[in-house]
Amino acid sequence: MDFNQNFILGCSAIGAGLAVIAGIGPGIGQGIAAGHAAAAVGRNPGAQGKVMSTMLLGQAVAETTGLYGLLIAILLLFVKPLT
Amino acid sequence: MEHGILLSGGSEVDFMIHGVFKYSFFGQDVWITTTHVCVLIVMLILIGFCIAANRCMARAGEVPGGFQNVIELIVEKLDGMVSSSMGPAAPRFANYIGTIFIFILMSNISGLLGLRPPTADYGVTLPLALITFFMIRYNKWKYQKPLTIWKDYCSPLPPWLPIWVPINVISNVAVPISLSLRLFANVLSGTAMMALIYGLLRWFATIWPAALHVYFDLFSGAIQTYVFCMLTMTYISNEIGDGTRR
């Protein structure tokens, strides 16, 4: 493996690290959703089941952007499309 | 076996899909991969369970007991889940939703058996999402008038100004992609974590990874199964409106 290949591999690793920074956004978003769900259950404990399923659905949709970042990182690290 | 189907079998970090054997199909080299084998195992487990359930229900008693209780509980919970989010249209979709629910759930928690979960392969999740996509489109054409569909395509703008159509078409096409990538990436991330732990810690990872299996396989898998089915039901019930045929 010559210098160029090693350079591309190292840059791929850095890129993978940068890509998973995308996890910050969903983390904040899911935290806000969970906090509001907790407040809603506190206000109306009878609706816990509905609040739970709505919260899970919203969190799963919000999670997608973070998962795209994870996917890019895994592709860069293990599939090595650039080398 | 050189590279086993078992995830924790190897001595290094390895969570990739491997070919088991290949054959020629109209001049193309086609591989039977570990995913096929895992799907086959999941299918055999489910078919065995279904045959046992069928035998049990054939001589069902008035008062359920034992295995019959379990089957009735599963069917009741699935029917309740479908009817709570689809309303009057529920009986027509309960079979499909129940089927994909059980299949995805079994696939996700097959990591507990040491298999590589089949849903950690994009070739499994994309067809599932495509089935959902075509169901959405077909049910839209079945239950809505063509004029309403055209109005929906131009939706924020009036129907005589169709400059918003490409955006709506793209957002329709994005549905199966995001649906399949969500399931795939969630399961794959769990698989990658478990493979890293087993591959890097070797003998040190003996008993305590069971707790991680509970999170990555059971909890995350069940949540993602629920989300896939809920989103499928939500999309379909959005498109069919009040559920009366045109």
Briefly summarize what is shown.
The complex is a heterodimer of chains A (83) and B (246). With 83 residues, chain A is mainly α.
Describe the structure.
The complex is a heterodimer of chains A (83) and B (246). With 83 residues, chain A is mainly α. Chain A has one domain (3-77): F1F0 ATP synthase subunit C (F1FO ATP Synthase, Up-down Bundle). Chain A has helices at residues 3-19, 24-43, 48-79. The longest helix of chain A has 32 residues, at 48-79. Chain A starts with a helix and ends with a helix. With 246 residues, chain B is mainly alpha-helical. Chain B is 67% helix and 5% strand. Chain B has a two-stranded antiparallel ribbon with strand order 1-2. In chain B, helix 1 (34-58) packs across helix 3 and helix 6 runs antiparallel to helix 7 (209-240). Chain B starts with 18 loop residues before the first strand and ends in a 6-residue tail after the last helix. The A-B interface holds A 53, 56-57, 60-61, 63-64, 67-68, 70-71, 74, 78 and B 16, 178, 181-182, 185-186, 188-189, 192, 223-224, 226-227, 230-231, 234.
